[in-house]
Amino acid sequence: MDGGTTQPSGWSSEKLEQAAQKLEAQLLEKPKDKPLKKAVRKLRKDLLPMLLKYEQYQMLLGDRNSFSKTDPDETFMRMKEDHMRNGQLKPGYNVQIGTENQFILAYSLHPRPTDTRCLQPHLEKARQNFRGR
């Protein structure tokens, strides 16, 4: 993971780490400064871990709108209604299958929720499969 990834706020985990180190250096000079101790503790325990987690999520997300924490390759998609009649967003893949006379010629899995953005990559994969034979 790149610690220098910049966030919309302009802060990165690298910059926040440097700020925490500066405050810790000040704390060594003034060990009884309670507001300074509190600021360092908040940086180390709350802010820095959250920012690192956020940066990791941003990397996993890529150009998608969502991902599943249990399987980062999955994307949340609106699934068909189940027996309870409540259509929900659930993690899943978009499966594309190309057939000819009921024979499967090619298949592909995509993290995109719509078929329109899956057709071209699917056809390209099928074309590559047949060129190799």
UniProtKB/TrEMBL annotation:
UniProt-recorded name of the protein: Transposase IS4-like domain-containing protein
Domain of life assignment: Bacteria
